[in-house]
Write a structure and sequence with these properties.
The chain is about 40% helix and about 15% strand. The protein has about 180 residues and is α/β, with parallel strands linked by helices. α3 packs across α5 and α4 crosses α5. The protein is built from five helices and five strands, in the order βββαβαβααα. β4, α2 and β5 form a beta-alpha-beta unit. It is globular, with a radius of gyration of 16 Å. A five-stranded mixed sheet has the order 3-2-1-4-5. The longest helix has 21 residues. The N and C termini lie close together (about 10 Å). The chain has one domain: Ribonuclease H-like superfamily/Ribonuclease H (Nucleotidyltransferase, domain 5, 2-Layer Sandwich), CATH 3.30.420.10.
Length: about 180
């Protein structure tokens, strides 16, 4: 996990945000009371919009989410941000979009002094389904089997990232391995 300068890794967890970055970004948020909210949001370029506007809308969405999690008078209510770390894309456009969202997210985390960590796709899939090459439908089914109602694979992936992150903080993972 990358800890921006002046972050407090030993502070009491406030909330954990997990993201599946992309034009349709899946998100899952675990709050201090152990409740989980989740969904997806579209950052599809709009007509007559410049190429960077989707990233500005993404940053504004992050700011709004942060404001809703911050305890009264606190700068931040987020203890950590985890995201699905994609190393290979099927298309150039998807790779460019992911890179823009990743750059926006990591610079936002640095600015807010929130620790962040990417989690490899295979690690997430293995954690939730037991196999590192599970397909989208298998991921959705596995997340639904854990009791979540999900609308699409982006939301399911974000919940899978969150489940992995919470398992790490509890000191356990599927298969018993401990990752640091």
């Amino acid at each position: 996990m990358h800890h921006p300068q002046d972050s407090r890794p030993n502070a009491t967890p406030q909330a954990v945000l997990a993201l599946d970055l992309g034009t349709t970004t899946g998100w899952a948020l675990s709050l201090p009371d152990r409740s989980v909210t989740h969904g997806y949001v579209s950052f599809k370029p709009q007509r007559f919009e410049g190429g960077g506007m989707r990233y500005l809308r993404f940053r504004r969405w992050l700011d709004e989410l942060l404001a809703t999690t911050a305890p009264r008078g606190a700068a931040s209510g987020l203890d950590a941000v985890y995201f699905e770390e994609v190393r290979r894309h099927l298309g150039v456009d998807a790779a460019h979009a992911y890179g823009g969202f990743l750059a926006t997210l990591t610079s936002w985390c640095e600015h807010q002094k929130i620790p962040y960590q990417g989690v490899p796709v295979g690690t997430i899939k293995r954690h939730v389904t037991g196999k590192g090459n599970a397909g989208k439908s298998e991921m959705v089914s596995a997340v639904r089997a854990r009791g979540y109602l999900v609308a699409d694979d982006n939301e399911a992936d974000a919940l899978a990232v969150l489940d992995w992150a919470l398992a790490q903080s509890a000191g356990r993972t599927a298969g018993g391995a401990r990752h640091g």
